[in-house]
C-alpha cells in the first residue's frame, strides 16, 4: 500500500473549506468518507426500502441457478462497482475510527506515522481475511495441490455462493487499489505498482468470464500471504517492536520466494504444459470454452510480466534483508522518506 500524509484535519477535526492551492486528490480525500458513505447508504436503502432492481444488483449476487450455484454475466459489474465504493468507505472508516485511535492509545504521536500505521492495519485486516477465505475455498476444491484440476472438466462455469463472493470482491478490491495509488502520495515504485494492478485486474476479469476461477484462486492465494506478513511486520515497526518486526519481516522474506516465485512458477508451468492434455483448445464461447493456443500464450505473457515485476520487488526485499543483517532494522525501500508531523 502507498503512504500518503493526509492533513490531520481530514481525520480528526471538522473539514475546512477547500483552498485554491489544494489538488483534486486532496479535495476528494477531504470528503472521501462522506461521499462513499452516502453512496453506500443510498444503495442499501434503495435495496431494503425501495426494492430497487439496480440497488439489488449492487448488493446481491446475480444469476442464481440453485441453492449454491451461480452463473456469470454483465450484471456482476454492478456488484463489483458497489464494492469498489464500499471498500473505499470501509478503508477510510476503519483507518479513522479504529487504527488512528489505536495508534494514539499505544503512543504513536506523529500523524504521518499514525496514518501509515492505519493504512497497514487495514491492509493486514483485508489480506488476512481474504487469504484465509481463499485458502478455505482451495482446500475444499479439487485443485488443492493438484494443478491438473485447473483444466479437468473445463469449463468450470458455475460457482458456489462463497466462491462468487470471494472472486467478485477481490476484483473490486483491486479496482479500488487503482484509486488508492493515484489519490495518495506516490512511492518510488509507482509505475511498477500501476502496471502490477492493471495486470492483476486483467487476469481477474478475464479468468472470471473465461471460467478459469480455479487457477485464479490459486494465484490469489500465492500473492495474498505476503501482503499479510508484510503489513504485520510494518505494524510491529510502527508499534516500536523492532525485534519482532525483524522476525516478521524475515518470515515475509522467506514466504515471498516460496509463494510468489516457487508456487507461482508451478502455476505458470501448469498453464504451459498441461492444458493440451485435458482440453481440446477450441474457441467455443457458446459452451463457455475460451482456452486456445492464443489465449494460452496471452495468459503466459501476463504471468511472466507479473513475475518480472515481482523479481524487481524481490531485489528490494534483498536490500532490506541486507540492512537487517547489518543490524539497521527492516525498512521499506519502496517508500519515500517523509517528515512526521506531531499530532
Automatic annotation (TrEMBL):
<feature type="domain" description="TLC">
    <location>
        <begin position="112"/>
        <end position="326"/>
    </location>
</feature>
<comment type="similarity">
    <text>Belongs to the sphingosine N-acyltransferase family.</text>
</comment>
<dbReference type="Pfam" id="PF03798">
    <property type="entry name" value="TRAM_LAG1_CLN8"/>
</dbReference>
<dbReference type="InterPro" id="IPR006634">
    <property type="entry name" value="TLC-dom"/>
</dbReference>
<feature type="transmembrane region" description="Helical">
    <location>
        <begin position="77"/>
        <end position="99"/>
    </location>
</feature>
<keyword id="KW-1133">Transmembrane helix</keyword>
<keyword id="KW-0472">Membrane</keyword>
<protein>
    <submittedName>
        <fullName>TLC domain-containing protein</fullName>
    </submittedName>
</protein>
<dbReference type="GO" id="GO:0050291">
    <property type="term" value="F:sphingosine N-acyltransferase activity"/>
</dbReference>
<feature type="transmembrane region" description="Helical">
    <location>
        <begin position="298"/>
        <end position="318"/>
    </location>
</feature>
<keyword id="KW-0812">Transmembrane</keyword>
<feature type="transmembrane region" description="Helical">
    <location>
        <begin position="190"/>
        <end position="209"/>
    </location>
</feature>
<dbReference type="GO" id="GO:0046513">
    <property type="term" value="P:ceramide biosynthetic process"/>
</dbReference>
<feature type="transmembrane region" description="Helical">
    <location>
        <begin position="120"/>
        <end position="139"/>
    </location>
</feature>
<feature type="transmembrane region" description="Helical">
    <location>
        <begin position="165"/>
        <end position="183"/>
    </location>
</feature>
<dbReference type="GO" id="GO:0016020">
    <property type="term" value="C:membrane"/>
</dbReference>
<feature type="transmembrane region" description="Helical">
    <location>
        <begin position="31"/>
        <end position="50"/>
    </location>
</feature>
<dbReference type="InterPro" id="IPR016439">
    <property type="entry name" value="Lag1/Lac1-like"/>
</dbReference>
